[in-house]
Amino acid sequence: MKEIIYDMKEKTYEKERTYLSPYAMRSENTRGREREERPCPMRTDFQRDRDRIVYSKAFLRLKNKTQVFFAPDGDHYMSRLTHTFDVAQIARALARCLSLNEDLAEAIALGHDLGHTPFGHIGERVLASLNPAGFKHNEQSLRVVDKLEKDGKGLNLTYEVRSGILNHTPAGKPETLEAEVVRYADLIAYINHDIEDAIRAGYLTADELPKDAVAKFGRHTSERINTAIMDICRESEGQPYVRMSAEKDEALSRLRSFMFEHVYERANKLIQESAERMLKALYTYFMEKPEELPVLYLETAKTDAPRAVCDYLSSMTDRYAITLFQRLFVPREGSV
């Protein structure tokens, strides 16, 4: 039985040697983990990382974290979890098309937003303004998998997955083509599905989208995503890079700028005041009473209270943050 299982893993290695692009990251060439572990006899290290992320507490919490629209009246808006699945699907499609390592791309995609705050990017901006050291969700995502998961033990992921998580933002510097794929997948996913959500919420109509960008990408979500994937594949197949054509890249940038001007700022204004008030109040409360932080954060609080408080606040779902704020600050019937 052991020999059969071992052969399954070796078959994966052999397939990668045979079919992956010479520029792809092969599972057997990983730089490994910070702490040595006994290898899994069946799964590659990247497949194992994917499983660890999916079964983490931080991943489960994504279902109740805002993507753009906070507590919408409807069940069909993107959450941080559905966005993450969307990124993973696009990343796998691109990796498959370019003969890159799908398992690595998927693991990075599934872990890229684990450190995101409640209330979307509003929460990120608030914590960045409160913490003297700043706050960035990509850095927090790495902190989650390195330090905070499994009661402070971390997930002990491979170097390539950790680096991909850290470098998935526009300012990042991906070290593998699989990480570059995730960076594009994230951009494609959030722009296009945020457009869909904004139309559903009544913030804009399809006719208001930049006509030149629509002409290059298409009017419907699936059409725009397919166009973006096909363009990247045509531009990057067989090459030591992953990129979009200049024409499509410029059009995608116009869509992104349009969304920031007409949707993100408008939508954020509706929740900004409430989210800021809640997070600032919670931050101040725990800075004054760090001993009331959960056990996981107490050790960090001894030397870096702002970091410990941000660890706690960023881990919260929207619902939990609201409930905690109400418990701490909203008078209840019968209270003095």
Question: Can you give a write-up of this model?
Answer:
The chain is an all-alpha fold. The protein has one domain: Orthogonal Bundle (Hypothetical protein af1432), CATH 1.10.3210.10. The protein is built from 15 helices and no strands. The longest helix is centred in the C-terminal third of the chain and has 43 residues. The mean pLDDT is 91.
Task: Give a topology summary.
Elements: H1 2-19, H2 45-54, H3 57-61, H4 80-97, H5 102-111, H6 120-130, H7 137-152, H8 159-166, H9 177-201, H10 211-217, H11 221-236, H12 246-288, H13 295-303, H14 305-315, H15 318-329
Short description:
The chain has 15 helices and no strands.
List keywords for this structure.
Hypothetical protein af1432, mainly alpha, 336 residues
